Amino acid sequence: MLKGKKIKAKLVLTMLILTFSTLMLVYLEMFFAIFYMKNTAETIYHEIAENAEGYTAEALLTEAEEAMMAIVDAEAQATNSRFSSEAGLIEQSADYLKDIYADPGAFTGSYRPVPLNEAPSDKVTARYSVAGGKSLTNRLSRELKSIANIEPLFSSIMRHNPTIDDMYIGTASGILYEYTAENDYSPDYAHTERPWYKKAASNPGSVVWMETYIDPYGKACITAATAVADDSGNVIAVVAADIRFNEIMENLLARGIGKYSTSFLLGENYDLIAYRDIYDEDFDPSFSAHFEDADTVKENLAKRDGRAFFATLDGKEVYMCASRIPVSGWTFCTAADKEQITQPIDAVKAETKDILASAASKTRKAFATLIISVALSFIIVAALSSAIASRFAKSITDPLEKIKEHAAAIGEGNFEQNIVKETEDEIGELAECLDDIQHDLIGYTENLKNVTAEKERISAELSVAANIQASLLPSVFPPFNDVDEIDIYALMDPAKEVGGDFYDFFMPDKYHLAFVVTDVSGKGVPASLFMVKGKTLIKEHTRPDSDLGEVFSTVNDILTESNTEEFFITAYEAVIDLRSGEVRFVNAGHEHPFLMERDESRTAHYTELKPKAGLALAVMEGIHYNAGSFMMRPGDRLFQYTDGVPEASDKTDQLYGMDRLERFLNDHTDMTPQDLLPALREDIEAFADGADQYDDIAMLCFEFVKKM
Amino acid sequence: MAMTIEKKAENGTVTFVLKGRLDTNTAPELQKEIDDGLKGVKELNFEISGLEYLSSAGLRTLLSAQKTMNEQGTMKVLHPKDSVMEIFEITGFTDILTIIK
């Protein structure tokens, strides 16, 4: 990421990355904290709302429960005590009747009840009927006469208890004695088959309560009855009273908490025996006709724990409670419309909701502001740190930039700059170093100038020396304008500017041509200077008739005497008599020449002449050299060279070699000296193929054209 | 190809084992060994069976060694290859060097 960027960018980036990652961490933590706080606040609001709602609802329901329980308890108690007193009256009547049956002779009143169908309907009187419309037998007449003695008791009870409509006695023998204003007679009526008689007869010793019915006057009534048994336990009669219930019921139904509540009475088997709709013609008293999930409601009722519970009555959700009336086994209930009870709760709920919503909205706004301010501060801090990082980086890179400029200027050759060490750090040290370099460079440059100047001077001198050396070699061909007898050509290529190889030719007199090919050990100026000395000596001592052996012996002594550098010279000198073709020669350690001759068939052929050579010149004093001789015929050629020819090497250090040289010469026998030597040199160059040559190359070739 | 010089010295006898090319470029190296290393040497040998090429500059170095040894002891050139021997012969150095084939 940082690769290829400038130091400033690297520094800035590095610092920014560090700063921003730290900032991001801190701010992320901050944001998390803020959101956590926000969520916590919202949760708390929510809980508060829930709790408030709970508390409120619970309080209201408890209140309602208490009120309703107070009502049902009080009403049940009141009803129970009324029923108890009425039951007492019936029991009292039953006891009286029992006494009558036990001792009929003791009751001698002359009460004469009239047959029911003859009794008035506008006045309460005693009356009778016989079950099944039968006639009154004597025995029954006697029994009726005894029973009639109860009239004063019934009369008294009914006078003092206006809610008791009528009182009656049904005997097991079939007499129905009634003290009432009712005269509705049916000959089929059999009281022993009626529920009140049967229930009472099957529960001797206790008062049974028959549930509501509507009497012929449209009033709701209940019947209380109890059986009378003889000493052996046989039921002989049932005493009963019809109690007007409508008042009780109206009273009951009026009880409740406010207009949204209703009260009702449940019988032993949970039938509704008092209810606001009881007068409707199609009223169904069964429990399940009015309650949803009747079984659960019954279970709640059976608990009798004094707690209110929810139920659905005639399609409306109600909060109801109940209290038992022990005497009759009935249950008094009050049910209040749940909506009406909880209405205040909803109001509170809504209000709480509003308050909380407002609080939440305020909280949200506060958090939004907080987040914005945190984000703003992040931006400010980020901008600040960027600016600081950039400034800091600049403080590092500016001096570097200066040094860079200085360095560039030094590169352009300005060593006179005022490089100031501005800081004490590595950059300052770098500036110091650069200053040192600048000063050193001044010295180096000066030195380099001198060295270069010196080198140029030497080079120039060498060039001059090379020119001088070249001028020492005969280089104009043909060299002798008026000499037709010979065709001579020579060339020399030094490995350095000036060489140690040398050739020379001259005519000591007009009949003789002398040539010398030499090679001095070593190269360069010293070797060439030594060579010049050798060449000069050889030329000076060569006379047309001199013994070449002696010439070399003399030259050797002179050279050896003054040879302090251990140079030595190999040299070959030959002198040809142009009149005869006789060649005299001497060889001081030099290569043997090649002689081209023609055989009988005029075929030309180069042959190496190999007489033994003497020691190289300047090695040792007092050496005696022997000259040799051979004959050349017109058309013959002589080729002499230095070791630079066979020892020219290619890049793999292969040598050109004698074999290759001999082959080349024999392949080019038709070439004149002037053509042969450059061609040979080209062949050598082609062989070397660009490889550096260590040795000088000198070659000389002449053709003995004709005799003088 | 350059040249390697191995110098063995024992009991006043020094042997230089030369391999490769003894020419203008490598001769100064051997010359330095000769200039520095022949003090008190009685017997000097050049083992040149590994020498591939000998130039006039190399001859000059051997000559310089021979001149030094002329004054303080003996010098031998041992086992030259044919091509090198030819150079000794052409230049006439067989006359002044003790060459053992």
Give the SSE map:
The complex is a heterodimer of chains A (708) and B (101).
Chain A: H1 7-102, E1 114-115, E2 125-130, H2 138-147, H3 151-160, E3 164-171, E4 175-180, H4 195-202, E5 208-214, E6 220-229, E7 235-244, H5 246-254, E8 261-266, E9 272-274, H6 294-303, E10 309-313, E11 316-325, E12 330-337, H7 338-411, H8 426-472, E13 486-493, E14 501-509, E15 512-520, H9 524-541, H10 548-561, E16 569-577, E17 582-588, E18 594-598, E19 604-608, E20 628-631, E21 637-641, H11 657-667, H12 673-688, E22 697-704
Parallel strand pairs in A: 1-2
Antiparallel strand pairs in A: 2-4, 3-4, 3-7, 5-6, 6-7, 8-9, 8-12, 10-11, 11-12, 13-22, 14-15, 15-16, 16-17, 17-20, 18-19, 18-21, 21-22
Chain B: E1 3-10, E2 13-22, H1 27-37, E3 43-54, H2 56-72, E4 74-78, H3 82-91, E5 99-100
Parallel strand pairs in B: 2-3, 3-4, 4-5
Antiparallel strand pairs in B: 1-2
Structural account:
The complex is a heterodimer of chains A (708) and B (101). Chain A is α+β, with helices and mostly antiparallel strands and 708 residues long. Chain A folds into 4 domains: 7-76 and 342-400; 93-340, Beta-Lactamase; 413-466; 473-704, Phosphatase 2c, domain 1 (4-Layer Sandwich). Helices cover 46% and strands 21% of the residues of chain A. Chain A has helices at residues 7-102, 138-147, 151-160, 195-202, 246-254, 294-303, 338-411, 426-472, 524-541, 548-561, 657-667, 673-688; strands spanning 114-115, 125-130, 164-171, 175-180, 208-214, 220-229, 235-244, 261-266, 272-274, 309-313, 316-325, 330-337, 486-493, 501-509, 512-520, 569-577, 582-588, 594-598, 604-608, 628-631, 637-641, 697-704. In chain A, the strands form 4 sheets. Chain A has a 7-stranded mixed sheet with strand order 1-2-4-3-7-6-5, sandwiched between helices. In chain A, strands 9-8-12-11-10 form a 5-stranded antiparallel sheet, sandwiched between helices. Chain A has a 5-stranded antiparallel sheet with strand order 13-22-21-18-19. In chain A, β10 (309-313) and β11 (316-325) form a beta hairpin. The mean pLDDT of chain A is 85. With 101 residues, chain B is α/β, with parallel strands linked by helices. A 5-stranded mixed sheet of chain B has the order 1-2-3-4-5. Chain B starts with a strand and ends with a strand. Classes of the chains: A alpha+beta (708), B alpha/beta (101). Chains A and B meet through loops of A and α2 and α3 of B.
